[in-house]
Amino acid sequence: MSLAELQRLESQSVIGTYVRQPVEFVRGEGSWLWDADGESYLDLLCGISVTNLGHCHPRVVEAVREQAGTLMHVSNLFYTEPAMELAARLTESSLGGKVFFCNSGAESIEAAVKLSRRAKAAGGVVTISGGFHGRTYAALSATGQEEKQAPFAPLVPGFTTVAPTVEALGGAIGPDTAAVIIEPVQGEGGIRPVPDEVLAFARQACDEHGAALVLDEVQAGMGRTGTLWAYEQTPVVPDAITTAKALGGGLPIGALITGPRLADALRPGDHGSTFAGGPVVARAALAALEVTDDPELLARVGAVGERLREEIAGLPGVSEVRGRGLMVGFDLETGGAPELVGAALGAQKIVINATGPQTVRLLPPLTITDDEVATALERLAAALEGHGG
Ligand SMILES: Cc1ncc(COP(=O)(O)O)c(C=O)c1O
Questions:
Q1: Cα(173)–Cα(193) distance, rounded to whole angstroms?
Q2: For residue 364, is the peptide bond before it cis, meaning its omega torsion is within 30 degrees of 0?
Q3: pLDDT digit string (tens) for 305-327?
């Protein structure tokens, strides 16, 4: 089928919630994607921080193939080894409590909100501006963006979004707060690490009022920032983290991971999901976790991220560079980020993304090679020159 035919089917049959780039990808391997004409593209986006280990990582593919031919689904009415083993690995590698599995980032936020309110009945949820937590109702209610929320009012009651400052949080967190949910590095918000003092204050205020500090690691977790979990580079240990995106090595799985205090807050019958933690996605996640939780790989993520930020700062038309590890964002002096992204895809064959009119986001594979980084920088420079930078 040609691209034109795909576009015709889309306009006839697909609810139009996405604005897609005019390219059909048919194959991926490592840092590279191929379109239907056999043209190769360097993928610096990873399906928005999902294919962190590159496309079709052999360990993940092997795990999925084997499990798909053995047992795909039985529901959570029964035991399967992959889910139990994955839960144990996730808690050992992070907060030491317990895990609730789900299928996406938004669902992991829903679970975090239910957990926090189960622990503190009818409590409020405080979030900070610039954060993005997903599109389902509680996740959308936690995402304090008027243009995303307004068409879908009324939202879930009890959510407050304030500026990412100590003063604003101080005014919002109180005895009735059940949870404070913060994305430690705001991804959709333009790759903005939340200042240490804001996180430290949130931790202290949550302790004072018996509220849960939840860090949303859906985008920043699973090695993306150069540690397995993003909170490891902050001054706080949260009560729970949410993860999804890269957790399944390319397959859809999410998880809420608690620390010890909230491990037993949810009780039998309180929450559930038919597909969650199924054997195929859990085996994929175990393989992805084994490959990612490697000190050498994680140290290299930090170093490559530094190199990218340093070199991008010297490219034409770039006004500011931000990020942590291989979460990289940069602003354009003259704006036009969506146009740059389209031109970079078409002319330079690199996959990048805009989070707004000013800001370009890179989420390259954690396994990107030094040669691929050099290629990425050359092509980015050419795209910026073409952009009038
Ligand atoms: C930080 C963060 N939280 C939650 C979500 C929602 O995840 P999903 O799209 O899997 O529902 C996203 C998605 O971009 C995200 O970046």
A1: 21
A2: no
A3: 999 999 999 999 999 999 999 99
244 lines ligand 1 (CB under 6 A): yes
Place of tokens 């992959």: 82
pLDDT band at 388 (very low <50, low <70, confident <90, very high): confident
Per the structure block, which two tokens stand in for 157?
Answer: 């009651």
Average pLDDT, the chain: 98
State pLDDT tens for residues 52-67. Answer: 999 999 999 999 999 9
List, by residue range, all CATH 3.40.640.10 domains of the chain.
71-292
- 245 C-alpha to center of ligand 1: Å? 7
Q: How many CB atoms lie within 10 A of CB 305?
A: 22
Q: What's the 382 CA to ligand 1 centre distance in angstroms?
A: 31
Tokens standing for 295? 């000190």
What the block records as the tokens of 203 is 């931790």
Pick from 107, 133, 327 the residue to mutate for probing ligand 1's pocket: most ligand atoms within 8 Å of its CB: 133
What is the architecture of the domain spanning 3-55+295-386? Answer: Alpha-Beta Complex (3.90)
Fold of 71-292: Aspartate Aminotransferase; domain 2 (3.40.640)
Q: 197 with 227: CB under 8 angstroms?
A: no
C-beta of 178 in contact with ligand 1 (< 6 A) = no
